[in-house]
Amino acid sequence: MSSTLSPRSPSRRLVLSRSAALVGAGTASLLLPQIARAQSNKVRVGFMLPYTGTYAQLGVAIENGVRMAIAEKGGKLGGREIEWFKVDDESEPSKGVENANKLVQRDKVDVLIGTVHSGVQMGIHKVARESGVLNIIPNAGVLPVTRALCAANVFRASFTNSQPTLALGKPMMERGLKKAVWITWKYAAGDDAFEGFKESYTKAGGTIVKELAVPFPNVEFQALLTEIAALKPDAVACFFAGGGAAKFMKDYAAAGLHDKIPLWGSGFLTEGTLDAAGAAAEGVMSTLHYADSLDTPRNKQFRTAYAQQFKMQPDVYAVQGYDSGQLLVAGAAAVKGDLANKAALYKAIESTVVDSPRGKWTMSKAHNPIQDIYLRKVEKGDNVVVGVAAKALADSGAGCKLT
Ligand code: PHB
User: Fold this and answer.
1) Which protein residue has the closest C-alpha to ligand 1 atom 9?
2) What gap in Å lies between CA 20 and CA 35, rounded to an integer?
């Protein structure tokens, strides 16, 4: 691959600009956009993220994180300037392929950073596999992308949806919470999160008395909360995120459940949602690969710099964006900006030890982070670390074959 003249390689650019001088005016005008691109020689980086809807804040945090990581290393990739492109994917799966193609076909990006929503990710994945464009996933944890449908050009800087919940069952059982209701949004992320919860909770001896769901991004929780009150489980476990998660915690408290039935979750529940949820979030327990209060110099330095730069507190999404940026910086540096040298680029990304605010992590063979999962508790509006719920947890990567 690296020896062929791909449309994105610098040598191809040279050929194009030289030949442009030789062609007639008519043909030249057809070639103009390509030549302009060639001459700029910038790395074309595309964000495909939600900037509207329930996950809008997640998209912003991710973009901030990416930009921060790259700016810290001089604002270039392998010595090349960057041209940025942006598409709002609205967390709308039906537009996933079309939106990915806006970046890949129309804007000819060298790398697509996206996205948050698992359903949309499947659209990006189709385009990434067909076009071969480098895709760094800053959030969406949909399982097949780093399992049976894994791809050499696709790397995740975040998690699989079942990773946090694989660490959820044991600490619940250790606190005597033997019967639980599971509640989520009905889409891939909720289903995947349930896979991890079911495995860990039943293995630890727990019983799931009921599975409840609302369609994404619906936030009409009332009927299900009434059902939970009637079921009287020892605990509720859930997957929700973004604006919907804040609403869920508020409705949970308003339904009188906050002080009666402990609420646990995949840790996204309390990421970027604590201000909005206020007192309703206090005491909520969760498992995730990050916590605000991680007491390491790396995390403290990251949090201070992020808050200074963006006038807001970072959350797990900012960290994942930051690590996506770090992967890109490391990969581009290894190939000295020649992102068309794919074999070397992928090898560099695969072997990077990411020095993350979440703690150091490495890439699994299937291109998903191997990372610690923390047990956290919301205290005074912060996600406070209670302990390490799972050390160096890897997704199974089942069915992934990369040659
Ligand atoms: C997903 O759709 O994969 C997803 C969305 C938001 C999260 C986590 C996972 O916080």
Assistant:
1) 140
2) 8
